[in-house]
């Protein structure tokens, strides 16, 4: 509704500008996607609002800056820094570490090890997750079958399909395990742990 009402005004403004000899303002161009070919060397990506597409199997990838968007097939080691960074890994990532704020990482395969000191971030692992260590606050983790999760922070939200071992030291954390048997040790105030036992 708002766009339709403003459309005649935009046209009138452009016509008036042409009569006055001034060029009408043009819309800002959409950000282009930069393509980078991975190899054995470390790939470092930074900037503000830049989009990257990585080709091939990547070794170590470091993502820094602000508002960066990255897509790749796989990575041996993924290091995410900066703020409001979005990373999509189509297959597997052996090691993933996060710091900074507002990062979102989605892995279509499995992750061997996850470590995060980030705040207000989200990690989604579609398949298996080995070890997860969460030391930040406001982190959301979603994963399939997971071996161990260690939380040392507050207000984190963890939901996994299966979990062998859980350690929580902090306050106001939420953990939900959909099925299986979990060995849990919880310390701190206001923590909620829901484990659905296998029948």
TrEMBL record:
It holds the Pfam family DUF3060. Residues 1-27 form the signal peptide. It comes from the Bacteria. Keywords: Signal. InterPro entries: DUF3060. This is DUF3060 domain-containing protein.
């Amino acid at each position: 509704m708002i766009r339709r009402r403003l459309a005649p005004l935009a046209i009138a403004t452009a016509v008036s500008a042409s009569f006055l000899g001034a060029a009408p303002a043009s819309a800002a161009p959409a950000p282009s996607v930069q393509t980078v070919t991975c190899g054995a060397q470390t790939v470092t990506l930074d900037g503000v609002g830049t989009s990257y597409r990585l080709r091939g199997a990547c070794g170590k990838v470091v993502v820094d800056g602000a508002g960066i968007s990255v897509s790749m097939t796989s990575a041996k080691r993924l290091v995410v820094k900066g703020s409001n960074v979005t990373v999509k890994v189509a297959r597997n990532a052996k090691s993933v570490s996060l710091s900074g704020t507002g990062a979102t990482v989605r892995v279509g395969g499995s992750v061997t090890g996850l470590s995060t000191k980030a705040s207000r971030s989200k990690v989604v692992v579609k398949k298996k997750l080995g070890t997860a260590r969460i030391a930040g606050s406001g982190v959301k983790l979603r994963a399939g079958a997971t071996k161990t999760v260690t939380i040392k922070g507050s207000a984190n939200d963890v939901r996994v399909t299966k979990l062998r071992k859980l350690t929580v030291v902090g306050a106001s954390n939420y953990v939900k395990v959909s099925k299986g048997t979990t060995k849990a040790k919880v310390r701190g105030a206001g923590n909620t742990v829901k484990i659905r036992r296998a029948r």
